[in-house]
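User: Okay, second chain of the day. Same drill as before: sequence in, structure tokens out.
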Amino acid sequence: MEFSIATILSHLSVDKLVPGKVLEKKLGCEESEELEKLQIALDVLERIGVVTKEFGKYRRVLEEDVVEAKLRCSSKGFCFAIQDEEDADDIYIRETHLSNAWNSDRVLVKIIKEGTRRRSPEGEVKLIVERANPSVLARVVEDKGDYSAVPLDDRLLFELSLKQNGQPLEEAVNHLVHVNVLRYPIGQNPPVGKVIRVLGSDAETAADTDIVSSKHDLPQEFSERVLQQAQSLTPNITEADLENRTDFRDLLTITIEQEISKELDLLIENALTLEKTEDNHWRLGVHIADVAHYIESDTHLDREARKRGTSVHLGDKVIDLLPKSVQKCCSLVTGEDRLSISVLLTLDDKGQVLEYNITPSVIRVDHLLTYKEVQTMIGSGTTKPELSDTLPFLNHLFFEISPLVKAQRLQRGGFDITLDKITSYFKDEGRIGAIASYATLPVLSLMTELMVLVGKVVAEHLTELQLPAIYCTQAKPDWDELEDLLKLVTNLKLDFQLESEEELHPIDYYNLIQEFSKSDYEKVLHYLLLNSLKPDKYSHHPAPHFGLALPIYTHCVSPGQRYIDLQIQRVLKALFEHGRDRRTTRSSQAVELGSNTCHGQINWNILPTAIQAYLETELHSLITHLNEREKIAQDAETDLAGLKKAEKMKDSTGKVFSGLITGVQSYGFFVQIEDTLVEGLVHVSSLKDDWYEYRSRHTCLVGRKNRTAYRLGDTVEVEIKSVDYYRQQIDLVTVRGGSSALDEDFED
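Assistant: Same drill. Structure tokens below.
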């Protein structure tokens, strides 16, 4: 089992001794070679004072002037260590103090010079806790019979000495290759690598999914022992499995997916039921595949899922969290009994949640539909005879319940961002950070409303019961991120004012979106607004989610695709199996632990102390890792979209497009081409007709002689001059456009 210093440290506590045997189990060390490597690592950590050993047990040691951080390096050699705390200072690291650490590595940094108001603190790398580049994209070069790999990422300031690996290296010279790092640099000795795969003569000839997978070092396959463990699982349900589960098999149950795979290997994680209560309210059941039933903690399958963190969607290629055989066991297959965790929501006629109950369950799906089928059915009011029982269900769901739930969110100040292309592969908001609406497929965003509501009530329940949890949060956008967009809105003559000059609120985004509908550039403005949102972050403390306008929220509906959802399931299952529903065994009155009716009635510890402490430690150790895996997945998916746009623009070199100026700097201005949502740069050096000055206060470039101005919101016609496919950089030249600059335009 592979492990890093970071994974070792994540299982160690400052105030608790951890036996070596426990570490071995946590890290999956079984072979003698693995045990030896672990012992060597622990001995080194002890020697440098990062851990201490007492009676064969280990404890983490924290030093005041040593912090854990992630390196962000420049192509010029210097780096900054970025701490996990959002408001913490970045630490400047000179090249001589990097200790052979590379860009994006996680490191322990010792502060050697305190910061001032004008200067960042300075530090040196004490220990590399996790390498971020176990492989690199590179170009092979040859010098006097020796072969080296030069990374395409210019922030990786080294060359790897290459070892022969089957294919003759002379055939790979000047080709783009994926290189596995065999040995990192030691002292003056350079790193050593081997070519895993020759991708093409250059980036443009290589498959875009291969480039992205290699660049972000996404796992391509599962290890043999993970696959063996996966094959041992079975979807068969025993009588013991059904104990203490609520049976919903008699209810009409449907699942709705974006597409239905011809190979039937689609992972279906959610199903829906709907019924009327005696009080004439709707009870909506959202049933989530019980993945935690099959994936036990600290097994090879669990460690692999933890390592991956999340599934990654690269077009038709998916980097799965779990092997296909596990997905088939968990997937909610039509006509078969399946184990689930059910969230039952009782809603009134305004869409407010009157009551909810979370329970382990067993279900049987009656119908599997696609969103397009559902859209057609409720739009036409007709369907196939075999689906006739689903039509009233769908009408109630998408014409009554979902719109009411959405109205409740909008009343809280929520907003929708309109997109023309479906970019999320999760039932909730996924990696978008807000609820997206699609003009061609409204039912998709209406389904998202329900899944987000489930995340809200689960987070509320865990908080109310003081159970360990990981929360999904989103900080408010930075003012400087939104400043250009607000200036652009002003220049487009849209009427908008912030609710408060002191801080941003979700209602500001709602009001902006209402104004966008009055503009000819609505599509571009929605895209820019989406990009101004901060990415979701996981935290062990409850905190608001800006994009969803929620005070508290968690991810829980995709346990087969995200490790956080799997962990939330485990907390819920601990509640079901070990939760105390009364203060003492002598108490006759019990509360219903899965229901919000117990809120305010509990004044005892629900879980046994040992289980509570174990879950708290386990979840706390995951936060940083899961945030990093989500960022890698987001970057990879964004990279693929960028490569596809660059490829499209490469084919359009020399063609002229109309676009909107969305950013102006001293070195040029950025133009967003509306049809393709591609952004390119018009460099100031390409403006040959005059000498242009940058007016920062008014965010524009102005010609000294001709008084032509290029400012935010101006429409220009641009020609595609050149495209750097790998870097996704598009250079433009103006054909016509801009506006006349009058001196009074720039007066105070």
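The chain has a mean pLDDT of 92.

User: Thanks, on to the next one.
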